[in-house]
Amino acid sequence: MAISAASLGLFQSSAGSSSSGIYPIDLSGVYAAKSGFGGQTAPKTVARMAPWDASAPKSTTDKLASSALAATSLFAGGLGRGAGSGIAAKNDKELFLLHNAVEKLKALADVATTRTMSDSERAKFQARIERGLKEIESQAKSAGLEGATLLTGRKFTSLTTGSFGQTKPSSFSTQALANGDENTIPEQFAGAIKFDIKVTTAAGDTIINVDLTEMGATTRTVGNVATYINTKLSAAGVEARFSREEVSKPSTIKGGPATLQQKFKISIGTSETLSFIPVVGETTDTAIYVAGAKTVNGVSQSVISRIDVSSANAVEQGAISNFSAANGGASIRAMTRDVDGNVYFIADSSGQIGTSTPKDKSDVVLQKQDSTGRIIWSRALGSAAAANGFSLAVDIDGTVAVAGSVDGKIENSTNASGEGVDSFVATFDADGHDLWFHQKGAAGTDKAVDLAFDASGNLLVLGQTTASISGSSEIGGTDTYVQSFDVSGVLNYSKSIGTTGDDTAVSIKINGNNAYVAWNETSGGHISNLDVATGNFNAADFLASNNGLGRISAFSLDVNGNAVIAATNASSSIADQLRGFVLSSGAQVFAQDLAGNAIRALSVEGNSANIALEGPKIETAANPNAFQTLLKGYDTISGASTYSANVLGEISGNVAITSASAQATSLQAVGLPQGELSFDNATSLTDLTGLRVGDFFYISSNGGAKRKISIAQDETMQSLVTKMNRFTSTYASTALLSRDGAKYLTMTPKAGTKVEISAGEGVANALKELGLDAGTAIANATGANKSKAPAVVALELPTSVDLSDKVKAKSSADALDGVLRRIRLGYRAVSQDPTQVELRRLTAQGSNPSKANSAAISAYNRQTAAMQDALYKLGG
What we know:
The chain is of the alpha+beta class and 876 residues long. It has a domain at 168-277. Helix content is 19%, strand content 35%. It is built from twelve helices and 47 strands. It has a five-stranded mixed β-sheet with strand order 2-46-45-41-42, with helices on one face. Strands 3, 4, 43 and 44 form a four-stranded antiparallel β-sheet that branches. Strands 5, 6, 9 and 10 form a four-stranded antiparallel β-sheet that branches. Helix 1 (28-34) packs antiparallel against helix 11 (834-846) and helix 11 (834-846) packs antiparallel against helix 12 (854-873). The two termini are 12 Å apart.
């Protein structure tokens, strides 16, 4: 199709200014550029076409993908005789070369999006894309553009990290206590509501007794209760105060009225710590938490349900909360609680949770919540390789330990083998600060599956290995091992037990000086007794086969030290038997046959065993797959069933249970957490993110040498600012700012300078965890310099790709398609083709505010955009 005066008629206007202030557009330059002698369109050969020209010949996706795989270099042979090969302009040819290279990589991602492929094929494709991106980056940096700036990353006017850390909060708000206005009386405020508030300062502890019956006839609205409590706080001479906070909850129905909600807001003194303590003798419940799977948009996430069981075994459904990851999935593997009833979760995550993003396919996330469900802190292992968590434990002093396996090195530590699948153990203090970490696997495959603290604070780790681990005996096949670490992470011993066949570890529990290890050989289950001080196993085992049972699937101890196990019977592979035994004698305490319904999880608290089973599918429910977990309780002394409840959790996912007894109903009624009111006080970036010591990125200024910025031990946002300023103060201003109490780093280049930030190699790249993208910060030109500023073409090459499944491959293909789009836009900005040069001149003319009013400029821009689109479709 030729461009003629008629085909451009919609862009023309009469001479002089129109009534709208639009000035005439001279299209003669564009028309002449597209036309031959005498106004006829000159025929365009393939060699003179852009590769994306609608008339240019196109290769199939398969051919492009095959070419990418076969080529030693994406740029070998240049443009050959294909599209663009007859154009001499440097900028045009460079952009054509880049386009063709990216197009080949996108073809690989497209194939991985639409085809069923083996893991090895996907790995091959991904490796070629990763290598190809490095080729493209090298080509772009070495060739560049004439009169313009070519960037492989993003272009910024300033760089800003994510928000990390916070100042100590000066207030705390409960969840909503009532729906309605200030005169609404929360139903749960009725009856005997008693609790103590402990205020701790440098001078010591002050105890304030709260008893709502002292309010007499005064109505128990949130505001009135706050006034009553404040009278007590004032009399005690403390700074803390309660107040009523009103919020508006939007309607779930479009156009519906919002709902007013009432809650407490507690102002905390600058030097005070508050704790909320149950009154001895007051009513308490047992809170039971169940984590199950929930599919959201085709991705498996986790959902946490709480039920409260009274002393009379009455069940009340509690709060339901989601535990999910952005741009990936999250699966809670295990749960436990501390003495205050705070709950801890360990999960595998393939996406971002909080401020942490996996460096590889998956990472391990640990989270602490108080008894109201408020997140106190969240931590990521920050593994450099794909990691999975299997167990966690909390010591009486608040120390938290997690254990699992990692396929490679978690970090470049001296005690990590990083060969194959290894066990790991990581510990944190009560505030979530890193204590010590251990990864030292066997020559074969090993993983840690459970752990427990003994009375001296030593950590016992149970796992399984195909070889000797840290000096343990190699028995044969897959062995069960137990390791003991002291409070500093020093190995006390490493012992193994098992047969010459393949054995599997199940669970470890401690009672006094004895540890009990549940494990399975091929023919059945064992519970072995270990001396925690020496690591020596006693000769006699409890054998499941002696009691008509097969393999053990779960094991715990009750308050009397008796074993509670879930196991198969001797003739079945379904773990539907719940039994209690006296370990010293082997005598059976109770037996429950679940008749083919497999026990999916077991937790024991006191003399109550809580188990998860497959629940009924409620076909009439909005989501029939939602309530598919049945939670049941049994008395471990009598074996009697105590309660039953359906909770959230799909049958296809993991299930974890924990329980916390002695949870004060009075504190639940007023929305206060039991125990100390804690906040995340971490400042180290290795605590707040998945960063590990030694992770790094690069900074260079005005094309100078790259400077490596490495994360140090106890690195904070402030120390990172100081470190960056050493290299950039001449070229940029780097500062630490605060937003809503959280801290973030910002870097702004000075006029006439540019600062490039680039990723560290491999999984040690620190940018992702800091919430930054690789790119270049260039100060915007102002005043007379604005029109002279060179054009910037930012490719925004993806820093990582993932073809491990079709969904992730589609995301990678979309990212590469974005690069192609930016190359085409860059061509319009820097091409030396006469048509593009004339379009830029017309655009500049139309955007000159001295020649038209704003309405005219707007109309002009619409006309020019339409013309550009028409020319693009014609190969312009």
